[in-house]
Amino acid sequence: MAFVEPVTLKARGIALVPLSLDHEEGLRAAAADGELWKLRVTSVPEPENTRAYIETALKTADRFAFAVTDEATGTVLGSTSYHDILSAVKRVEIGYTWYAVRCQRTHVNTTCKLLLLAHAFDALGCNVVGWRTDNFNFASQRAIERLGARKDGVIRGNAMRRDGTIRDTVMYSLRAGEWPEVKAQLLYLLDKPRG
């Protein structure tokens, strides 16, 4: 039995469903909202590479990918994944996360992180959840830090960007003992009035 089994996670009108080839058109449309593939520091697929993006996600052994959808309509809003899954030490990372521009700076990301973290810590019994991001993806770094994750450090010269430059990777983590406080903060953020 795999450490991360297929599961659908739902809350606050958002459903994280196991990614499949059926999501190809929806992912293509979500990425087109803002032409997200043009961002230098993300892994969002170009429209013509959406199917290959899904196929790669599905065949990567240490990754479990989700389509982020509107629960009521089934509209695809983006994608996120557990990756670098280490069952022996009960650790997963959350990444490959992106949303259509219309969903950015809304409750979508906070809801997704709440769902993924709750499943990782409460259902899977993870000891640690990690994140990694491009050293120039400052928006992602701020979002991860707002979650309450701690910066572990920077791995220099760690990965290739789509433009051929080599990136440094900023690593973050959250330990199981920190989860109750982070959960309370995420619920607070979701419940407070948005101005």
Structural notes for this entry:
With 195 residues, the protein is an alpha+beta fold. The chain has a single domain (9-191), classed as Aminopeptidase (3-Layer(aba) Sandwich). Helices cover 30% and strands 33% of the residues. The protein contains five helices and eight strands, in the order ββααβββαβαββα. It has helices at residues 24-32, 50-59, 107-123, 138-147, 179-191; strands at 9-11, 14-18, 63-70, 76-86, 91-99, 128-134, 150-160, 166-175. The protein has an eight-stranded mixed beta sheet with strand order 1-2-3-4-5-6-8-7, with helices on both faces. Helix 3 packs antiparallel against helix 5. The model has no long low-confidence stretch (mean pLDDT 92). InterPro entries: Acyl_CoA_acyltransferase (IPR016181), GNAT_dom (IPR000182). This is RimJ/RimL family protein N-acetyltransferase. Keywords: Transferase.
Give a concise summary.
The chain is of the alpha+beta class and 195 residues long.
Note poorly predicted spans: none
Largest sheet composition: 8 strands, mixed
Q: Roughly how many Å is the radius of gyration?
A: 16 Å
| Shape by Cα distribution | globular
Number of helices: 5
User: Strand order within the widest sheet?
Assistant: 1-2-3-4-5-6-8-7
CATH topology: Aminopeptidase
What count of structural domains? 1
Shape-level CATH architecture: 3-Layer(aba) Sandwich
* Percentage of residues in strands: 25-35%
The helix fraction, in percent, is: 25-40%
Count of individual beta strands: 8
- The CATH superfamily label reads Gcn5-related N-acetyltransferase (GNAT)
In sequence order, what are the helices and strands, one letter per element? Answer: EEHHEEEHEHEEH
**Class by alpha and beta content:** alpha+beta
Return the CATH class: Alpha Beta
The end-to-end span amounts to 45 Å
What is the mean predicted local confidence, pLDDT? Answer: 92
Keywords: Transferase
Organism: Variovorax guangxiensis
GO molecular function: acyltransferase activity, transferring groups other than amino-acyl groups
Pfam families: Acetyltransf_3
